Amino acid sequence: MPDNVEKMDGELLARYIAGNVNDRERSQVADWLEASPEHIRRYRSLRRLHDLMVWHVPPESQSRSLPSRSHKLLFFRAAAVVLLLCLPAIWLFQQRRPASQVDLHTVQVPAGQHIELQLADGTKVWLNARSVLAFPDHFDGHERRVKLNGEGFFDVVSDPERPFVVETGSYDVQALGTEFDVMAYGPDSLFQTFLVSGKVEVIGKDRQSRITLSPHEQVYVQNGQLLKTPLQDHNQLSWREGLLIFENEAFSRMILRLERYFDVTIEVKNKQLLERHYTGKFRISDGLEHILKVLSLNGTFRYRAEDNTKRILIY
Fold first, then answer.
1. How far is the CA of 174 from the CAs of 139, 140, 143, 221, in angstroms?
2. What is the C-alpha to C-alpha distance for residues 64 and 51, in angstroms, rounded to an integer?
3. What is the predicted pLDDT for the residue at 71?
4. Residues 148, 123: contact at Cβ < 8 Å?
5. At 50, is the pLDDT very low, low, confident or very high (cuts 50, 70, 90)?
6. N or C: which end of the chain has fewer CB within 10 A?
């Protein structure tokens, strides 16, 4: 098979999707698509990303001159708005790589948002607020590896020959075909995985510490050690539906979740509040102020947002 049919330059494929190719290049892409079903899957994955993408210029910058294209911010608009990181040498949503390597994408979800996307192998991914996912435009080699900082739910397409690996700062989560959630904000501060169906293995960076999960089990870090327990809170996936659900939840844990979802710092002056428990169901799109207003209706606390900061005082 000719090299130009077997291989496809990522920039050319992106320009083809955007409609910016000449007749020769259009014919080259058409030959490549006809050569393999895998090529068609790769094209469809990139096409979905392109169709979701819109340009966005923050209001405060509209009066200033626009930055160069290599430094613009690209936004997805799907179930929510997703920020696609653009660095130098990136054309649209792709990172240019040598022809022998795959093109990488990086998606970042803003505070208070969540999105759904599909990878080249058909695996579906839901990303929670303030999450970053790096993934290739297609998978080569003996495994399917992505990198996550934040929280994501993965519905993995089965491929016994190529395990699916979610790499985080501290642990890898490996699966074949399964549904599971990974929470890993930052390299060490927070890690948790729970399994809905199938089987996953959580592997430490030293490759020595390993824990296998069965459905409805979870593993989390406590005092530097991985602990496995039955899944207690079945509302942990409510964020996929745009909901925050608290069921008799300690205020201290609620504060951590609200800070993570909305990218704020919440300082509780009255420390006795941290031991109180609350129950409530909220739409994330209603915003943090609405949530705090409803929770404070019983008169147990008041709150104040400091001007021009991301800091909230509760007293």
1. 15, 16, 10, 17
2. 28
3. 29
4. no
5. low
6. N
- Which tokens hold the place of 160? 């016994």
Of 121, 111, 97, give the one whose Cα is nearest residue 40: 121
6 has pLDDT over 50: yes
- Max Cα-Cα span within the chain: 73
Integer angstrom CA distances of residue 208 from 10, 171, 205, 306: 37, 11, 8, 47
The dihedrals phi and psi of 39, each to the nearest 5 degrees, come to: -65, -40
Domains and CATH numbers, the chain: 70-230 (2.60.120.1440), 242-314 (3.55.50.30)
**Span 207-262, pLDDT tens digits:** 778 899 999 999 988 887 889 999 877 788 899 888 999 888 889 989 988 998 88
Per-residue confidence (pLDDT) for residue 62, from 0 to 100: 34
Give the pairing of strands 53-55 and 74-77. Answer: antiparallel
How much is the pLDDT for 84? 39
Q: Is 301 exposed, middle or buried (0-12, 13-18, 19+ CB in 10 A)?
A: middle
CA–CA distances in Å: residue 281 to residues 178, 234, 253, 295, 305:
28, 14, 15, 10, 22
Residue 298: how many CB atoms within 10 A of its CB? Answer: 9
Q: Mind spelling out the 3-state secondary structure of 30-83? A: HHHHHHCHHHHHHHHHHHHHHHHEEECCCHHHCCCCCCCHHHCCEEEECCCEEE
- Nearest CA to 148 out of 180, 103, 102 is that of 180
pTM of the model: 0.69
Q: In 3-state terms, what secondary structure has residue 142?
A: coil
E-strand spans in 122-170?
Answer: 124-127, 132-136, 144-155, 164-167
Residue 150 and residue 127: Cα distance in Å, rounded? Answer: 8
Task: Take residue 152 and report the two structure tokens written for it.
Answer: 């994501």
Those residues whose C-beta lies under 8 Å from the C-beta of residue 306, and which sit 6 or more positions away, are: 312, 313
